[in-house]
Amino acid sequence: MLTIDVHHPEIRTFVNIKRDLKKVTGANISIRLSDEFMQAVKDDGKVHLRFPVDKDAKHTVEEWIDAKQLWHEIIEAAWSSAEPGLLFWDTVKKRTPTEAYPDYRSTSTNPCGEIVLSPYDSCRLLLVNLYKFVKNPFTSAAAYDNERFKDVVIKAQRLMDDLIDLEIEAVDKIINKIKSDPEPDDVKQSELNLWNKIREAALGGRRTGLGVTALGDTLAAMGFVYGSDHSIQMTESLYKALALSAYRSTVTMAQERGAFPVFSHKLESDHPFIKQILEANPDL
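The structure assignment produced for this chain is given below.
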């Protein structure tokens, strides 16, 4: 996944790059949108293009352009070439606990955008099939087995934690293979540095990406029109159950196995998403 900040001076070039079907054929592209930009769109205002893109940095390149015009360019490009995707980056940071850790702050996503990642981390993904929990699908007696869904999510999160250990084992084999290769150490060093950083990220943060699939099929099986109030309420309920059950599982594993190595209660205590989880389920 190639991403760019919406405030980057070359944002327009990036937005339209895939209209030329011969360019960027081997990657997905997305724009990291800020609340600042979206507010400018709503207010018919200007967006500040700058480099570096951080708002409080000393900018060496600056330009102000019409925010709504840029927004329309983004929409038209997505309509014509299915990209760029949109990442509401300020929301991402508010809802990603790793933002509390300076060495694990998110910089982009994995290739298809399922999980935001910090440098050198891996996308460890597992999906729970929502449709499998619909009882009597496509009938008037359709019902959702919420308790079974929560139980499976708890087990799936435990499996995700096990998968991290399996990945670390595989990375160790790669590192040992590189060390035993006949090439001189100075030739192997850059590759060793890369894999050691990947290992350090996996071992320290133990980041996982547990999600769901088949939401559309599930809503249809329940008799809900996609986009209706009933479908929105059910979607909110499913994702709330997913989040709370996954976090309950991690709490249990922390009691059994210990917290991940870089865990800090002090750093996490003020994170808005952690607060939201605790407010929704105080007994955690």
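Interim note for the steering committee: The chain has two domains: 1-94, 120-284. The radius of gyration is 22 Å.
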